[in-house]
Amino acid sequence: MGIVIELAFSVLMEVFLYNLGRVVVFVLSFGRARSENLREIIGRKKPEAPGAKQKIIVQASVTQLIGGLTLTAALTLLLTM
User: Fold this and answer.
1) Which of 10, 15, 36, 52 has the largest count of CB atoms under 10 Å?
2) CA distance readout (Å), 48 to 22, 31, 34, 43, 66
3) What are the backbone dihedrals phi and psi of residue 31, each rounded to the nearest 5 degrees, phi first?
């Protein structure tokens, strides 16, 4: 039973909250910031051309935290109405 709960929590954190955080980061920064994607975390990054417009990159763990805070705030507002 504990393994199932751990797996469900992991899926919640890795998938749902990360994707929610990606949307929130993009919207609140008006497109000036973006979240790390899986290729940047695991693989090699391609070198950027000099003079290319660079965006602020938010770490994946911070993106999950932002998604969790957003979900908590939304549920709190929903339950207090």
Assistant:
1) 36
2) 22, 18, 16, 15, 27
3) 85, 5
Instruction: Give the CA distances from residue 76 to residues 19, 79, 81, in Å, rounded to whole numbers and listed in that order.
Output: 20, 5, 9
Tell me how crowded residue 22 is: count the other CB atoms within 10 A of its CB.
20
User: Residue type for 59, please?
Assistant: Q
pLDDT tens-place string over residues 29-44: 998 898 888 677 666 6
Question: 21, 66 in Cβ contact below 8 A?
Answer: yes
pTM for this structure? Answer: 0.74
* CA 8/CA 56 separation, integer angstroms: 31
- The DSSP annotation for 21-45 comes to HHHHHHHHTTTSEEE--HHHHHSPP
